Each structure stands twice: as structure tokens, then as C-alpha cells.
Amino acid sequence: MNMRNLIIVLAIISVILVSGCTQPNVPEDPTPVSTDSQERCIELCREQIANGIDLSNGPCLSETDGLDWDIDDWVCDVAHEPRKLIDDNALHQCQEYRKERAAHFVEVTPNCEFIRKA
How high is the mean pLDDT in each 10-residue block of the chain (118 residues)? Predict the structure, then answer.
């Protein structure tokens, strides 16, 4: 094998090795979604406030259309600390919990402060 052929073979091998060692440029998700019920509930609450949503009526965030809640057996509810009468209104409570389709809940205030989880 002459020198010219050796250089061509080495160049081809180099291209193959370099192209196999690189990863495609895939952008990372800048805000990964938490899988912890308490953290995710607070995230959802903050997203709602950032979007100008009034949470004073104590909505069930995990059952709100358009919000991503993927934590099995848990619900995310907004309540007041101390509790108000509106918090006991079934219309504003998580139906999944009330109907025993979810066994656990996280409560946050309308300002996204953690109250409790059970």
C-alpha cells in the first residue's frame, strides 16, 4: 500500500470514528417536571399564578384542564390556611380524592405555600 492510499484509508477511518462518537444536538427540556407530589403541586400552583389565574376559590389543580398532573394516587388541591368555608365546598375539592380514586392529597395555599400532604 502506498503512502497516498494509506492517508486516504486513515482519513476515511477517522471520519467514521468521529461521526460515530458524536451525539445529535437535542435540546434539553429547560424545566423538567417533578415527580414528587409536593414539588409538582407547588409547580402547578406557580404556573397558574404566572398565567394570571386567581386561585382564591381553592381549585383542584390536578383536575384542571390543560395542566399536566401525572402522579398516580395523588391529587393537588388549593386551600386556605387557616381553612375557609370555600375550602369545604365540594365543587372546589378534588373529586378523585372525594370519590376515593386517589388515596393521597397535597394542599397548597392560593400563594403556593405548602400546607400539608397525606
Answer: 68 63 52 81 97 95 93 97 91 92 97 97
Residues 61-72: b if buried by 16+ CB within 10 A, e if exposed: bbbeeebebebe
- The pairing of beta strand 104-108 with beta strand 114-117: antiparallel
pTM for the structure as a whole: 0.70
C-alpha to C-alpha distances, 88 to 34, 58, 70, 84, 116, nearest whole angstrom: 28, 9, 25, 7, 16
Q: How far apart are CA 9 and CA 15, in angstroms?
A: 10
For the chain, report the end-to-end CA distance as a whole number of angstroms.
75
Q: What is the DSSP letter of 69?
A: -
d(CA 40, CA 47): 10
Cβ neighbors of 48 (< 8 A, separation 6 or more) are: 55, 61, 64, 67
Count of C-beta atoms within a 10 Å radius of residue 28: 6
Cβ neighbours of 107 (radius 10 Å)? 23
